Amino acid sequence: MKEERLIRDREQKFKEWLREEGNPYEVRFVRSSSTGKIREKYENLSCGEKTEVKVSLGGRIINRRRHGKVTFADIKDGEGKIQLYIRYDTLGEKKYTLFQKLDLGDIIGVEGKIFKTATGELTIEVFSFFLLAKSFRSLPEKWHGLQNVELRYRKRYLDLLCNSKVEEIFIQRGQIIKSIREFLDKRGFLEVETPVMQLLPGGATARPFRTYHNALEREFYLRIAPELYLKKLIVGGMEKVYELSKNFRNEGVDRFHNPEFTMLEVYAAYSNYEDMMKLSEELVSSVVRKIKGTLRIHYQKKEIDFSPPWKRITFEQALKKIGGVQVDYKNEKQLKEVAKREGLNIEGLSRAQILEHLLERKVSSYLVQPTFVFDYPQETSPLAKRKKDDPSLIERFEIFVGGEEIGNAYSELNDPLEQRERMGERKDEDFLEALEYGMPPTGGLGIGIDRLVMLLTDSSSIREVILFPQMRAKSIKDEN
């Protein structure tokens, strides 16, 4: 009820503004500067120093303090905030009174001169102002931000308005992605785009989302991975490719999983998983240094050192030496018994899934420093090449950092006959046909962008680093 009353009051103010000043939404406002540029150029003014420099800038009113015939206000644009100084004597009675009808949250344009107050605050003395957009709803109380976490994600626009730390996360996310592109582009990789809608969900094991194409009159799936399309490009002679892809998996939601997420996938012909280890080590450490200025960071109160070379341990060693799981994982009966003792619900799980669940439960939390876990049982990936000296294993590794997996890679299986056999029921005939034309030895790498951003921004939940995460449908009380 209180919020409804405030909206009505603001609507009435807006009607009065329309009568007196006309429609603000029709106004085009040209900015000559921004808060960041002004601070960069004039922060060194002496206390009390005035200038004749005229500027025009726009922003949202976030604070206001009236002292008789003088009003101070703060406006915020995309680069920060700055103080405004509004005088009755400068504006005149009509304009000064009009300024008092503005509300917190209104977006205005101002023209004025730059000076620094006696207390050292960089300020704009306003000689004209314009309402550019009315805020009919009040901002969260006292500009302290939203307290309800669910509401923050649902109304990210308010979260960004109220919390500079949130904005910084997404600025860093953009910088991380830019750094990844620069690293790969310099090494001769070509960025490509592959279909989001696919006839068959391939490249990973996950429950897909379904959709329907009316014009083509057929069902499609939202991709769970771009892998098979990228390997078709390798067949076609594009020897070094990468994609920053949106993937969709119709599965659980938790701190590290969101149904829509961003992956980096990289493929290089005439290479294998050893080459991918080197590439991922160089790529991630390069991005960390560029973003953080150091290879040592803090994540959730843990210090992590990304300096190469990273630790390497086989899958079997990881289970036995770190997880304390003493099991012959080729013996399915024994494996199931051990899994049950560890509290795993193994109903409906394959041997490969049991093994990976054991790794996640017993090992991953101990892998705080960057670590390659390699040489997985062959059942864990039908797309990876077997090891020559032990066909029960595949040339695959996963990257663990901060106790979580952030990457997956392997030497790609390029034998079309073996690939057909190992794909089982989920055969992709178009991909298999492509392989039959011949694919050179190839290394493939996937890195979870959201999880990498979590590490570099010290975020505890994947929803903190996705601008608009999917949310469960439920009513959330607005705590503004």
Q: Percent of residues in helical segments? A: 25-40%
Sheet having the most strands = 9 strands, mixed
N-to-C terminal Cα separation, in Å? 13 Å
- Assembly of the depicted chains: single chain
- Outline, from the CA principal axes? elongated
Give the CATH H-level superfamily of the largest domain.
Bira Bifunctional Protein, Domain 2
> What count of helical segments does DSSP give?
15
CATH architecture of the largest domain: 2-Layer Sandwich
How many domains, as an integer? Answer: 2
Mean pLDDT: 93
Quickly name the level 1 CATH class of the largest domain.
Alpha Beta
| Uncertain stretches | 475-480
Number-wise, the strands total 19
Query: Strand portion, in percent?
Result: 25-35%
Radius of gyration: 29 Å
Q: State the secondary-structure class.
A: alpha+beta
- Return the CATH topology of the largest domain: BirA Bifunctional Protein, domain 2
Provide an overview of this structure.
The chain is an alpha+beta fold and 480 residues long. It has helices at residues 2-21, 35-42, 88-91, 93-100, 149-154, 156-162, 164-186, 227-235, 273-292, 315-322, 332-341, 351-362, 416-423, 429-436, 449-457, and strands spanning 50-67, 70-77, 80-87, 107-116, 122-133, 190-191, 197-198, 210-213, 218-222, 240-248, 260-269, 296-299, 302-305, 311-314, 371-377, 386-387, 390-401, 404-411, 442-448. It folds into 2 domains: 2-139, OB fold (Dihydrolipoamide Acetyltransferase, E2P) (Beta Barrel), CATH 2.40.50; 160-323 and 363-464, 2-Layer Sandwich (BirA Bifunctional Protein, domain 2). It is built from 15 helices and 19 strands. The strands form 4 sheets. Strands 6, 10, 11, 14, 15, 16, 17, 18 and 19 form a 9-stranded mixed β-sheet that branches. Strands 1-2-3-5-4 form a 5-stranded mixed barrel. α7 (164-186) packs across α9, α11 packs parallel to α12 and α13 runs antiparallel to α14.
